[in-house]
């Protein structure tokens, strides 16, 4: 056995024994040389082989990380929604998910879209907020200007260059969270009874806007790796009077895919051909695992027909409620909608976020978070593989901190939640993400915060409960 | 001449010579005794006579204050709006008023609805905010619960008892400013094309909601002392399919009146008879000059048909965007609308306001502000009398910090604003407060912040400009 093969074997054994677990960083080349008494080239060769064998992956400027033992063998299926305009339901389930603060009733919410709020790189934000609130007297708590603070709009415009967007600060409108941006967009573009095409599954917050405004959702088949089917969308645009296309093309919620750039470009062309507006939800876009981050659809739009919506709720903290939109040619109407919706947004949080970006803290925070989230994705994939029944479909997120599971054998995740409630656990059932409650056999999990032993135990319990339900079903059938 | 008569004469002379000016506090009884070498009963008698003669007024537990020389002789007329459902216009003028932060472009905004942000009694709020932001780490910046923080809802419910309202914390929904509360109310109650009855003149923010939602405004004649005409409203309810009645019955914006309680009660009875909901904007209600503050319409409602809307933007500071509503029987729909509009409201500002109220700071602040605003009202009334043409109608606010002027001779306040812009002055033209731009000959002034010499000079310039425009008109006619 060659020297490097011995090293490979040692490392592989340690991984199998759980000394290094999924997502852990393996020893550096230097450390490995020291520990095993081998040369740098031998250590390098060992890692290359380990990588080839699918045990580990190299991450630029960081090192080698333990991969889930197999890449997920089953992806969720391409969705096949109804493809006719539907009224939106499911509010009760959404309400259950968002009613309380997590921890308030000691329910462990495994499915909510909340980032890791314990990150060290968020500390400068707290410092900035505390300093601002100490420094600024009540006069600084006047109404801000309606479009939002100029400093923040400037920073947002600068930051948008990383997604290929050239925005002027005046193109940006600060909102009270991304939810308001999406809401204003839909109110700007549509009237009750009209039809909006959406990717499917689709963020429940947007679906509920459709419901509240009496709009109809036209759910378009969506591929878990490349996003909304342009072919199906084209057919739908020919068939139905679609007023707007609503998509989350980058680090999609809940599926985690990023649409390939050529498809983003083709989507803009399609919208042009049918003269329809696009609402682009980019709230997770800055959390992509690649550098530079993927381009937005907006970056391919030279007609101002894309309304780009985002916020700092997933990249920083949700409780500041600082969001923004770049509404393109619809700016004037969006501004009116913003005025009647909430007036100017809160003053000091805007300043704090602007300074956080200006000082470079935002970039550093993103860098750390994206490494963490990628690591966590791999760990959670490992757990799902270990604890969920064979045949469970799993997404392979390109960014963000949300995993989508498709359970085999028609397990109902609303019923699953009822069972989990006894153990104070809660997952986001897939039915939230459909106008008519499809995807009941799917669920969303969050891997943002540190994946502690108690989270692992909770994931394991979910998996066990699913398997118990499968067995009960099987018993009923036989 | 009796001793007390000499004292009266001395004080009257000083007032006429401007030693004491309108709104100033006169010497205390004790100080007057010392200064004039008279007994307490003589000093008391002197003040009684001064009061009778209309020079001063006594304020409980405070002292004697100089009154404007005559009470305003001309009140604004009872409004006579169109009384048929109208589409709302005037957005451009509203945008001009709210686009920028005051001071940003060094324009002196004399007409905006902004409280005195320099008040010493606001300092504990800043302290609380600074402490909270220092103490709470990023985990405290998670999404709050959708209905809002329980502590704040508790405080709001307790505070509401001062207006005769018995609310449970669960009856309260925290919003992002009163504007969101009003917006959610209208979205909860109406669909595009429907008719909403409003007092007239009416807050432009509400009018613009009607515009944004494609609603029609049915403007009801309104008396500058007792509010919306119930007689005219009854006729309107018989004639038109009114979906909601929107009023600001306490410390009305812009007219300053408070509807007498029997009329509030009668309004509820009318709404019951026609089975229509009432949206009650109470944003200035806590700023009434009487103790206890007037009752809300909501306090007479035992069917849950009144949606009470308010915020801390006028009583504390606007830039926190903390508002609330008590939507009565419409709570579930309002909650859904809240979710789709902005999700949960920002977390820490709610906590800060809750603690501010709990510690008794709010009550103290209101007490101080209401004394200040009442004093300022009298001063501004004096200036209007001095600097504006004879025949100018002036409101007599019962609370809040806004004065309404009705100019004689058909002066156009939009044109007036154009002229004032050259001197970096801006008033709120009356046309903002009407669906179709009526009240162009009216304007709103703010007397919240200290009425400095430069504010006096500005008010004088507005009056002079009005008179110059009158003369030009007269020259054209002759």
Summarize the structure.
Two copies of one chain form a homodimer. With 478 residues, chain A is α/β, with parallel strands linked by helices. Chain A has helices at 3-17, 29-36, 40-52, 91-98, 123-135, 150-160, 177-189, 204-212, 230-239, 261-273, 331-342, 347-358, 361-387, 413-421, 453-477; strands spanning 56-59, 63-66, 108-109, 173-175, 195-199, 216-220, 222-223, 227-228, 242-247, 277-281, 306-311, 323-326, 393-394, 402-406, 425-426, 428-429, 442-446.
Biggest β-sheet: strands ordered side by side in the sheet of chain A: 4-12-11-10-9-5-6
Question: What is the CATH architecture descriptor of the largest domain in chain A?
Answer: 3-Layer(aba) Sandwich
Mean pLDDT of chain A, to the nearest integer, reads 93
Tell me which oligomeric state these chains represent: homodimer
Kindly provide the radius of gyration of chain A, computed on alpha-carbon positions and rounded to a whole number of angstroms: 23 Å
Percentage of helical residues of chain A? 40-55%
> How does the overall form of chain A come out from the CA principal axes?
globular
**CATH topology call of the largest domain in chain A:** Aspartate Aminotransferase, domain 2
Q: Strand count, sense and closure of the main sheet of chain A? A: 7 strands, mixed
CATH H-level superfamily title of the largest domain in chain A:
Type I PLP-dependent aspartate aminotransferase-like (Major domain)
Give the count of structural domains of chain A. 3
Biggest interface between protein chains, with counts per chain?
A: A-B, 69 and 69 residues
Number of strands of chain A: 17
Instruction: Give the structural class of chain A.
Output: alpha/beta
Termini separation of chain A (Å)? 53 Å
User: How many helices of chain A does DSSP assign?
Assistant: 15
Under the CATH scheme, which class of the largest domain in chain A? Alpha Beta
Regions with little confidence, pLDDT below 50 for 5+ residues of chain A: none
Strand fraction of chain A equals: 5-15%
Domain HTH gntR-type (chains A, B): 1-69
Keywords (chains A, B): Aminotransferase, DNA-binding, Pyridoxal phosphate, Transcription, Transcription regulation, Transferase
Protein name (chains A, B): PLP-dependent aminotransferase family protein
Family (chains A, B): In the C-terminal section; belongs to the class-I pyridoxal-phosphate-dependent aminotransferase family.
């Amino acid at each position: 056995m060659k020297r490097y093969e011995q090293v490979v074997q040692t490392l592989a054994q340690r991984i199998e024994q759980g000394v290094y677990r999924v997502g852990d960083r393996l020893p550096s080349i230097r450390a490995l040389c020291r520990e095993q008494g081998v040369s740098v080239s031998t250590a390098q060769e060992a890692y290359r082989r380990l990588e080839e064998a699918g045990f580990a992956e190299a991450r630029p400027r960081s090192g080698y990380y333990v991969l889930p033992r197999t890449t997920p063998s089953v992806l969720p299926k391409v969705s096949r929604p109804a493809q006719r305009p539907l009224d939106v339901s499911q509010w009760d389930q959404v309400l259950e998910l968002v009613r309380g603060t997590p921890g308030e009733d000691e329910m462990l919410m495994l499915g909510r879209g909340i980032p890791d709020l314990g990150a060290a790189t968020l500390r400068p934000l707290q410092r900035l907020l505390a300093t601002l609130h100490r420094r600024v007297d009540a006069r600084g708590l006047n109404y801000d200007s309606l479009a939002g603070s100029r400093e923040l709009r400037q920073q947002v415009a600068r930051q948008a260059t990383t997604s290929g967007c050239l925005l002027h600060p005046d193109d940006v409108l600060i909102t009270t969270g991304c939810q308001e941006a999406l809401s204003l967009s839909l109110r700007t573009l549509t009237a009750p009874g009209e039809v909006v095409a959406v990717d499917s599954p689709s963020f429940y917050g947007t679906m509920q806007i459709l419901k509240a405004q009496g709009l109809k959702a036209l759910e378009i088949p969506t591929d878990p790796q490349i996003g909304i089917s342009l072919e199906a969308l084209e057919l739908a645009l020919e068939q139905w009077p679609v007023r707007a296309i609503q998509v989350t093309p980058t680090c999609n919620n809940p599926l985690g895919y990023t649409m390939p750039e050529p498809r983003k470009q083709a989507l803009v062309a399609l919208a042009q051909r049918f003269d329809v507006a696009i609402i682009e939800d980019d709230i997770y876009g800055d959390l992509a695992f690649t550098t530079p981050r993927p381009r937005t659809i907006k970056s391919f739009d030279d007609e101002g027909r894309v309304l780009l919506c985002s916020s700092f709720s997933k990249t920083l903290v949700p409780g500041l409620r600082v969001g923004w939109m770049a509404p393109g040619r619809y700016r004037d109407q969006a501004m009116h909608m913003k005025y009647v919706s909430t007036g100017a947004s809160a003053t000091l949080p805007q300043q704090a976020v602007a300074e956080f970006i200006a000082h470079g803290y935002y970039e550093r925070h993103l860098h750390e978070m994206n490494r963490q989230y990628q690591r966590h994705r791999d760990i959670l994939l490992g757990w799902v593989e270990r604890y969920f029944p064979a045949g469970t479909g799993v997404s392979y997120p390109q960014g963000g901190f949300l995993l989508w599971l498709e359970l085999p054998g028609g397990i109902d995740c609303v019923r699953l939640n009822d069972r989990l409630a006894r153990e104070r656990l809660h997952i986001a059932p897939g039915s939230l993400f459909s106008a008519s409650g499809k995807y009941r056999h799917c669920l969303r999990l969050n891997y943002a915060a540190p994946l502690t032993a108690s989270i692992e135990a909770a994931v394991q319990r979910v998996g066990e409960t699913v398997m118990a339900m499968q067995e009960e079903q099987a018993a009923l059938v036989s």
